Amino acid sequence: MTDAPLIAILDDEPEIRRLLSAALVEAGFRTQCFARATEFEAALRRIQPEACLIDLGLPDRDGLALVHRLARESGAAIIIISGRAQVQDRVAGLELGADDYIIKPFEPAEVVARIRARLRKPARDAGAGRQLVRFAGWTVDFDRYALTSPEGEETPISHAEAEVLRLFLDNPRRLISRAQMLETLGGSAGESFDRAMDVRISRLRTKLGEDPKSPRLIKTIYGAGYIFLAEPA
């Protein structure tokens, strides 16, 4: 059980923490629970969770700001669990780097299924040696969530950005539709998913030094999807 994936739960409601932890432990995960953002952030210096469940209504920190920082600095999958059900709230969370957004009240089984979907890594399971991938002079380290330019400059990438880049590298020079992204990366169909994909790809383009008007690596096929123009070395 010690090598089971660790899930961090940040929610100020004790009953929510208990419910989530019980469901996840029963499903074979380990959990660590926190009531305050300060406790959670301090613990991240010692632990490396595979996924973080974050409530937005925290007593000591803005939840969206915390999600944004985690997306930039952590390789963990980030799933928001919140009572904020408006479309603009879901879009904001996904745009700031969350991998998924679950609205309260929820079914614990759904949370478990969403986490399993987020932690599914087909390329890692298929070939353990593919965590360091080179393409067009670039190198991506999927274990460290780091992208290195041809000049040797290293840039961190979020879990969400890494998922998209992995999908591109697994399907070079092939059209990847929105439907395929939804099926492979998980999430809920609709405007919030489309916006989240647009943001992830835009951030990848920026980190890859791409000019969207004259792409070298990520080409948009309007109305159809995307084509990744480089092949893994």
CATH architecture assignment of the largest domain? 3-Layer(aba) Sandwich
Distance between the termini: 37 Å
State the strand order across the main sheet: 2-1-3-4-5
Return the string of H and E elements: EHEHEHEHEHHEEEEHEHHEE
Number of helices: 9
Radius of gyration: 18 Å
Superfamily at the CATH H level of the largest domain?
A: Response regulator
Q: Largest beta sheet, briefly?
A: 5 strands, parallel
Q: Top keywords for this entry?
A:
233 residues, alpha/beta, Rossmann fold, Arc Repressor Mutant, subunit A, 5-stranded parallel beta sheet, 4-stranded antiparallel beta sheet, 12 strands
Structure notes:
The modification 4-aspartylphosphate is found at residue 55. With 233 residues, the chain is an alpha/beta fold. It folds into two domains: 6-119, Rossmann fold (3-Layer(aba) Sandwich); 132-228, Orthogonal Bundle (Arc Repressor Mutant, subunit A), CATH 1.10.10. Helix content is 40%, strand content 21%. It has nine helices and twelve strands. Strands 2-1-3-4-5 form a five-stranded parallel sheet, with helices on both faces. Helix 4 (87-95) links the parallel strand 4 (77-82) and strand 5. Helix 1 packs across helix 5 (108-119) and helix 7 (159-170) crosses helix 9. The longest helix has 17 residues, at 191-207. The N and C termini lie far apart (37 Å). Residues 122-129 have low confidence and may be disordered.
